[in-house]
Amino acid sequence: MIELKQLCAGYGDHIVLRDISLRFAPGRLIVLLGPNGSGKSTLLKTITGLNEKRGGEILFDGVSADTLSPRQRAQRVAYMAQRRNTPNIVARRIVLHGRFPYLSYPRRYLPEDLRMADQALALAGASDVAAASMEELSEGQRQKVYLAMALAQNTPTILMDEPTNFLDVRHQLNLMKLACGLKDQGKCLVMVLHDIRLAMKYADEIIVLENGSVRGDSSPGEIYQSGVIDRVFGIKLSRFETGSGPQYYYE
Predict the structure, then answer these.
(1) Strand pairing category for 213-218 and 205-210
(2) How far is CA 136 from CA 85, 91, 142, 150, in A?
(3) pLDDT (tens digit, 0 to 9) for every residue of the chain, 251 residues total?
(4) CA angle, 175 as apex, 172 and 9 as ends, to 5°?
């Protein structure tokens, strides 16, 4: 369980997030929606400790993040970043980086670390590129490798910043189904998505951000009924019922 209490964060003199209070509970798929610059990425980075908070609290199972070392925090939350440099390294080695929080110095991988890395590659659909250099891979293949690295970290909460970027439609759907399977195992998945329809179809909870503040936090159905997506994005979102549940579209 991650709890944010009146969290404030930003960069330099610029405050991006203001008084954010949220709970990320186990067994949930939570999607962050909001226009560009609304604070979605800043929120994820602040939770992981990559960005310094300016006020409020971050709690991991009731324990203040301020009392945790970077290693301890990394054992509680994994982060799949939106943008990264492309290192000249084999994909499987990148995935093994997800095991760093559990290694003592000097880093020596145990059979369990190798097993979890290979399992993560399989879950992410990247086993076929495990021996390839990251520089040789397409953007979509790299995205799956970085997903595998987050999975290999084996944390109760996984934060993903635009994980469907560079993936074709089939792999986007596979990713969302994988996320649903992980939350059914008790993990909490928090995703930043730009595809509102994908979010409305798969999320248990949708949080809408605008100008660094929470404008809505509820189930997809309740978010739709509130009209907050129409107001924040300046669009008209509609839905129709099908045998497999509601489907959403833009008018």
Answers:
(1) antiparallel
(2) 13, 10, 9, 21
(3) 999 999 999 988 889 999 999 999 999 999 999 999 999 999 999 999 999 899 999 999 999 999 999 999 999 999 999 877 788 899 999 999 999 999 987 788 999 999 999 999 999 999 999 999 999 999 889 999 999 999 999 999 999 999 998 888 988 999 999 999 999 999 999 999 999 999 999 999 999 999 999 999 999 999 999 999 999 999 999 999 888 889 998 88
(4) 95
